[in-house]
């Protein structure tokens, strides 16, 4: 081991800087400008803008409490009984309390009905609904929508918990601008200590959700209001007809609201915590599902975003182009880059892998430190730096390979219509109507 590190340092200390740039051009030319320098600049501008607008934000917050509108919190899910009591307890501790809580059981075969009916009898759930036959998450959410009486609809996952002011924070932006149609909440990982793979996801969520969506929101290209914690104007949800069958239903409804001309914003101060998969198999299946939606919805269902007709909006066009470029085009380019690197430099390939881990580690370290400085729980999250040295393997190799496989499968076979995540009857109907 000592000999390797001696060789490593001897080699790279004697390599001219221009050769290092040539060897790692993908990192220096494509990823550092976009994911480090640009993001750092935008996040700083975002925070300065938030500081500058703090009086108007406080006025909007005061207006929210003065109006005190009824909101409908809907929670669709299957076999989520063990999570419901904790969710209900988390909501009773919220600073905003004028809500109608609707739980929808989508054909569960566990004790969810018993738990929810008991909570309903105790007055802790306003309405419990059940699909005796599973219809899928979209079907369950739309059932709740029929009974929702609130001015705003807050969509939650059952395994989510919240900071005490999370509901208040996710509603306040609606009172800063009447053109805001939906607000995304900040989703962080609760079970990071359960497994190494969960720790990697905790870092990923800080980078791609807390920081990434902050940047996208500032630029006006924020494209996915997470189903784990998102708020919508009820009148707009009614106009678009509710949720269509997923996977990708979160991004789909966000795009539909954007296409109506409304703004979608991210509120990093509205913090929720969720459990992430702690096995490679479950995580891979989850990411297959998420990635397939890129092709199914952005390239198929919402292809009209790329067409300059009378409803064309440049921000929507740029949002989808940016998403496709950095997640599809650059993924393909990365494989070309890696193959060429291996073919041309077989004698030093291991040294390059270690150097790549170092370079990406430094970049990830800067991002995570910045997020922790802004975070409400920075002292806890700073401990996640222990995962940074290996994040390049997690997101640079594993996630990229999973995404690419998902893209090819969806493009060639429309595999999302055969995903067990949705009931087969729903997928058949979705395929017939190209939903």
From TrEMBL:
GO terms for molecular function: glycosyltransferase activity. It comes from Prolixibacter bellariivorans. Keywords: Glycosyltransferase, Membrane, Transferase, Transmembrane, Transmembrane helix. This is Glycosyl transferase family 2 MxdB. It holds the Pfam family Glycos_transf_2. The chain crosses the membrane at residues 23-48, 324-343, 349-373. It comes from the Bacteria. Residues 72-238 form the Glycosyltransferase 2-like domain. Belongs to the glycosyltransferase 2 family. SUPFAM superfamilies: Nucleotide-diphospho-sugar transferases.
């Amino acid at each position: 081991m000592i000999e390797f590190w001696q060789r490593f340092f001897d080699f790279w200390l004697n390599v001219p800087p221009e050769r290092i740039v040539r060897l790692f051009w993908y990192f220096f030319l494509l990823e550092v400008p976009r994911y480090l320098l640009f993001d750092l600049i935008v996040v700083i501008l975002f925070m300065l803008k938030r500081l500058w607008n703090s009086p108007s934000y406080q006025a909007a917050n005061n207006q929210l409490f003065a109006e005190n509108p009824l909101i409908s919190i809907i929670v669709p899910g299957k076999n989520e009984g063990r999570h419901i009591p904790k969710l209900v307890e988390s909501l009773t501790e919220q600073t905003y309390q004028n809500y109608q809580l609707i739980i929808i059981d989508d054909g569960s075969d566990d004790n969810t009905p018993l738990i929810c009916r008991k909570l309903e009898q105790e007055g802790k759930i306003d309405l419990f609904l059940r699909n005796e036959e599973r219809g899928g998450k979209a079907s369950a959410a739309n059932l709740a929508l029929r009974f929702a009486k609130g001015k705003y609809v807050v969509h939650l996952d059952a395994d989510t918990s919240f900071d005490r002011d999370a509901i208040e924070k996710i509603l306040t932006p609606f009172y800063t601008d009447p053109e805001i149609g939906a607000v995304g909440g900040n989703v962080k990982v609760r079970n990071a200590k359960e497994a190494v793979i969960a720790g990697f996801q905790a870092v990923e969520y800080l980078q791609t959700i807390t920081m990434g969506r902050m940047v996208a929101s500032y630029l006006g290209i924020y494209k996915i209001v997470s189903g784990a914690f998102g708020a919508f104007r009820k009148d707009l949800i009614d106009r678009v007809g509710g949720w269509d069958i997923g996977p990708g239903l979160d991004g789909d409804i966000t795009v539909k609201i954007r296409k109506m001309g409304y703004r979608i914003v991210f509120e990093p101060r509205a913090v929720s915590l969720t459990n992430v998969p702690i096995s490679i198999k479950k995580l891979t299946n989850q990411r297959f599902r998420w990635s397939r939606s890129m092709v199914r919805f952005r390239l198929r269902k919402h292809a009209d975003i790329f067409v300059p007709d009378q409803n064309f909006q440049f921000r929507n066009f740029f949002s989808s182009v940016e998403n496709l470029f950095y997640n599809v085009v650059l993924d393909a380019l990365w494989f070309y880059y890696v193959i060429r690197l291996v073919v041309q430099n077989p004698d030093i390939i291991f040294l390059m892998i270690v150097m790549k881990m170092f370079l990406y580690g430094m970049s990830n370290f800067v991002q995570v430190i910045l997020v922790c400085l802004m975070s409400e729980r920075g002292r806890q999250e700073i401990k996640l730096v222990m995962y940074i040295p290996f994040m390049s393997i997690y997101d640079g190799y594993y996630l990229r390979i999973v995404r690419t496989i998902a893209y090819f499968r969806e493009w060639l076979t429309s595999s999302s219509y055969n995903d067990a995540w949705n009931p087969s009857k729903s997928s058949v109907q979705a395929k017939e109507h190209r939903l």
